[in-house]
Automatic annotation (TrEMBL):
InterPro entries per record: Na/Glc_symporter_sf, Na/solute_symporter, Sodium:Solute_Symporter_SSF
CDD domains: SLC5sbd_NIS-like_u3
Location, primary (coarse class): membrane
Record-given protein name: Sodium:solute symporter
Record has Transmembrane as a keyword: yes
Gene3D superfamilies: Sodium/glucose cotransporter
UniProt membrane topology term: Multi-pass membrane protein
Keyword annotations from UniProtKB, A to Z: Cell membrane, Ion transport, Membrane, Sodium, Sodium transport, Transmembrane, Transmembrane helix, Transport
Amino acid sequence: MLRTNAVAAWPADAPALEVLVAVAGTPVALADDEAWLLQDGQWRRASWYPPAGTVVAGGFGSSDGMTFLLLAPRAAPGQIDRALRLTLQGGVLASQALPGLPVALSQAEGAARGGALQLAGMDEAGEPRLLTLAAGGNNWRVRDGWPGGGAPRAMVATATSSYLAAAHADDGGADRLLRWSPDAGWEALGDAPGRILPGAGRAIGQAHLLFVVDDGGASAVMSYHAITGAWAAPPGGRVGDVRAATAWKNGLLWSETAAGTTRLAVSEIESGRLLLRWLDWIVMAFYLAAMVGIGVFFYARDRHASTADFFVGGRSIPFWVAGVSLYATNVSSISFIAIPAKAFESNWQYLTNNLIAVFGLMFVAVWIVPLLRRLDLMSVFTYLETRFHPAIRMIASALCILVQIGSRMSVILFLPSLAIATITGIDVVWSVLIMGGFTILYTTLGGMKAVVWTDFVQVFVMFGGALFAIGFILLHIDGGVPEFMATAMAEDKMKLLDFSFDLTQATVWGFLFLVLFDVVLTFPKDQVLMQRVLSTKSGRDAGRSVWMFAAMMIPGGCLFYGIGTALYVYYKSHPERMDPLLPIDATFPLFIAAELPMGVTGLIVAGIFAAAMSTLSSIINSVSTLASVDFYERLAKHPTQKASVRFAEIAGVLVGLVGIGLALLLSRLDIHSLFDVSIELFGLLGGGFAGAYTLGMFTRRANAPGVAIGIASAILLTLAAWSVDLVHSYFYLAISILVCIVVGYLASLFFPPPAQSLAGLTVHDP
């Protein structure tokens, strides 16, 4: 909803207010060559004036805090020929001239993002023109005007596009809205609900625009959703006869003149907090108690467990349970929240990754998994010691522990906590403590058996909540399933395959590349996934568990992408139900909290917890296994199975506590940059060892010195690429693996072939 509050009255002795802008969060009014600042609750005249011989013809700001004024010659006040940037330093206004416009524009409107500017206006011949100036650029670029002509009303820039409200060429009826981007050019978006006040527009949140619209009566602040293309009139949006407006705080600052008096007010969007109800808490408490109960059951049954029982479930886990656990571990809470948001925002193209990954998992099931399962490993890094050297094993294990705790566990704990806190009112700290604390408890009590069986239950909690959600959405879409399908197909929301060679898009070729490096070549070194495979009864069952995992990927992906598409159709019909201040990733949690009945909300929030806890328990169990098997049992003087299990239990608690601490630290920092760092760490530190597995399993010639050189070269060259920002962070993993394979194999040729028997260690020597 919108809440309108009065702002300090315009001084009675001041000239008539003409232009409103906000500079560094401070409202600035331009009136008859004078500038006025709103400071300490009142308007004060500033010691700034436009350059000699010019008048201020308009102004606009950007979402990143920059403010610009448009100037025209005093002799021709309707012909804008220059612009300047306005700044506020120590309460004093200052300006910086920008390059002169190559074409004088009338009725010009502007927008800015990241220092780049766009100006739309009419040239001397009455033709529409768009001028763009790159950030830090010295020359304006003249681009094609918008189709259909018509004078500009307002212009707004978002992260990817600019939006222009323009009058119809015949100046009749409602204005129309167009979108422009450097790559796609102009695109017509249909008519607005009325006439838009010149200069009265802004972007807010990640996907909303606000405009002051005259719909034939009084003016109203209305929102436009850039994804669904739907207009909405928020409650409380009616305003007076607005004459000027600008972006300020979480809304628009506007002025109106009545009976000779100028009134100013700000209309701001307010988010409602949607709290869980008593039945939701009962459902969540029952779920958490059930998870702990599973851990207590296996602890009581196997309290004198051996290392094999604790680390790999006594190698007695049924393949179908291991397969479901693999899926649960792979589908983290980030996926539970982010996949519906991705489908809501775009389409199903990212589901191509699941389709191709199925073929990658087939290769893994046939060639890689049986080889490693036959070796009866507990730590997957034992293979590197057997094939190459103990030092390679320990370094790889240590880096794996670092990456799992630092770049996976903390983010997986924090991101869903942030989403849940934003929507339901559960504090981030409590969300992190609840998920982390209960996961530590059942994981350290029950070991691997508790982990895989809780994963099994959690998948049904996730799927149950997701199925209910998509069914509920379809029932509440006007027109039901036929309308859902018609809208989705008409707007290409279920587009899947893209065979273009555009490397900037989600194409089939890009996913083939990603699956090769992120699934096939890294699967052997992923202790979290491989530990489930190693827990099965035989090599045959190990392969079948991966087949089970592959069989769940496509229907599971369709379910979560389907939720995103259903949300798109629902909110296209009900745009007023959205919250412009929430990020796109909060779309599904918003629907859960605002639309679902009591009890079901608790079930799906439990599903988000389940998605997070299944991955967290896997990380805690795997890291504690590595700490015990790769370090304690190798470094302790007289290790015993009982002591090794006890050490793993203590390590599991410590790992969980460190993960909780890092997640709480993230709540005070910039999560977006840290999430990128987590991806970079995975590629920078982990890719080389994935290459070592490839060399070990698929070649006979690779040896320890050559592989060591390959790993070191991979890490150093990938760090060098990172230091100069050579490529996107997603490519670091592929670069690291490729360098390790190529350099490692070539370096191995300079050393004698392996002297030990390779029986059972390569695909060539089963």
